[in-house]
Amino acid sequence: MATFMDIHHGMRDITGDQLREAHNADLAVESQENVHFQHAWADPASGDVFCLSEAPSAEAVQRVHERAGHRADEVHPIPFAV
Question: Which CATH number does the domain housing residue 7 bear?
């Protein structure tokens, strides 16, 4: 499976509890698309939220986010990391 980083904009002032709730919503439906969300980070000041996942495609990542109620603004493949 490939690795993806997706970004949600416009989530200014998000709290830790709200981030956890959104992440848990992804986890609840991720198996429907064979996606596994590993981590989520948020910058409340900018309103950006970042999610790291393993998935068969960027489209599968987006479908999970849509089902969870928070479509990603960007989904980027990560070809390699160190």
Answer: 3.30.70.3090
Query: Which residue range forms the structural domain that includes residue 40?
Result: 2-78
How many CA atoms lie less than 13 Å away from 15 in the CB half-sphere? 3
Q: Count of residues for the chain?
A: 82
- Span 34-62, pLDDT tens digits: 999 999 999 999 999 999 999 999 999 99
Q: Cα separations (Å) of 28 from 32, 36, 39, 68? A: 9, 10, 14, 8
pTM above 0.90, yes or no: yes
Position of tokens 């309103």?
Answer: 47
The number of domains in the chain is 1
